[in-house]
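Data availability (excerpt). The following record was deposited with the supplementary files.
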Amino acid sequence: MPDIFNPIPDIFNKVTDIADRLNNRLIWQFAKTRRPIATKRPIVSFTFDDVPDTAWTNGAAILEKYRARGTFYIAGGLEGRIEADRRLISAEGCRDLFTRGHEIGCHTFSHRKVSSLSSRTFAGDLRRNETFLADAGISRRPTNFAFPYNAASPRLRPVLKKRYATCRAAGEAINRGTVDPFMLKAVEIRQPEDHALGLTRWIDDVAADPGWLIFFTHDITASPTPYGCRPETLERLVSHALERQCDILPVCDALDRFGWKEARP
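Predicted structure:
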């Protein structure tokens, strides 16, 4: 709720949100780096940000039920944090996901908007997250990144290009044709639940005109936050993707399908 006696923080947040949206649009419109989405089959990736422990326990199990795997973007600084409506994943949970065949990606360590960081601080934050994941038992260094709050920064693209094959934002679109690999678009699975259930239309779209549909979400629980969904909703999306003859792949495997192996750092 805004503080009517001190509106400055609320105004500041609105201004920074506008700036973030402008940054994202500028990158999508003017980025010179392009790679082809070369596929005759529809590809769907299910990705999870932060990651709440219910994404580990419920989300991963649902994917595995259908012999699929996902990409989990971990921010080490959130490890084990208990919030009012969710608990964040532990180092043990990260290791368990990895040993079960899921991809572990980077979501920074501090989970701050990257535009608030200098290039040097940002690079140090990414190294700190790599150290956290290595100490957790993740033997493969993360090669794919997701922006906290889906907020990118043109200024920091050189730092990201040195470390990752892809970066993911939001954008509510399917990746088709030639795309900027450092600003992939994705569709959010969020509340209300009717909205989340209606996301099957995106699967129908990519099935009719093949490309790469990336979903992202957070918690998977019977009482989700505004940024997650119920287990049965996620299962409906996963099963519908298979019914429509889509291939469900983690981000790293989708890159292999497109022939982007040489793009990996």
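Summary of structural features: Residues 1-6 have pLDDT under 50 and may be disordered.
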